[in-house]
Amino acid sequence: MSKVSIIIPTLNEAASLGSTLRCLNALSPNAWEILVVDGGSEDETVEIAKAANVRLLTCDKRGRAIQMNCGAKAATGDIVCFLHADTRVPDDLITVIAATLADKKIACGGFISIMVGQNITRWWISLHNYLKTYYAPLLFKPHLFFRGLRLLFGDQVMFCRRNDFWECGGFDENLPIMEEGDLCLKLVQKGQIRLVNRIVQSSDRRVARWGALKATAIYLYIGFLWGFGASATYLKQFYEEIR
Questions:
Q1: SS3 (DSSP) at 131
Q2: Cα gap 41→49, rounded to integer Å
Q3: Using the 8-state DSSP alphabet, how is residue 230 labeled?
Q4: How far apart are CA 174 and CA 236, in angstroms?
């Protein structure tokens, strides 16, 4: 079985991290290691990670790309899996990842993300996010789409071989947003990007704050502007951090 290192970037994630780590402790088989990479949390995030007996790393600089690269540098597994602190995964996660990357034609994979909240499942937004995995690369990078490009986002639990990750340069630390999409564009040079036919559950906290219509409009706006070449720094202003 492949050795899978799960990397979780955190910043003030006390509300979500505990249940996520409990979910990861129930994996069968277990992950090779779980690394929580904190960017300077001011709540109980660090204490929760320490109590869960996972590897805790701290970064002098905060930012998802920076923190995920920090985790990947410290990882000792042959596969790296990037997980948001508010995402729940199936208990056979490791088996699914290993089986997917057993195909040498596949360089990277991710899951179908279902957005859920208290007493609600965001079916329509989840459907749009699923379709976006396909239509975004087809619209903006059709030559790469037919080579296997799919556009994955952070809540889809991306995973790839650690060697491929670093040969592609890892995440671009200058990108405050869309760092996963940028990585997909680099990893497709190594092989196909595969959307696994399995589900993970992510928090709807951003949609709950914005409302479904506003959230959909922002997702579309950011996606299309990114596809047309707008800078990630410009796009970040529309994507506030919500905990």
A1: helix
A2: 11
A3: -
A4: 12
* pTM higher than 0.85: yes
Identify the residue whose tokens are 């497709």. 188
Q: Six-digit token pair at 206?
A: 């951003």
Alpha-carbon span 37 to 55, nearest angstrom:
8
CATH number of 4-236: 3.90.550.10
For the chain, the structural domain boundaries read 4-236
Pairing mode, strands 106-117 and 120-121: antiparallel
Structure tokens given for 197: 């036919």
Backbone phi, psi, residue 231, to 5°: -70, 145
Q: What would the pLDDT profile of 13-37 be if each residue is shown by its tens digit?
A: 999 999 999 999 999 999 999 999 9
* 166-203 tens-digit pLDDT: 999 999 999 888 899 999 999 999 999 999 999 999 99
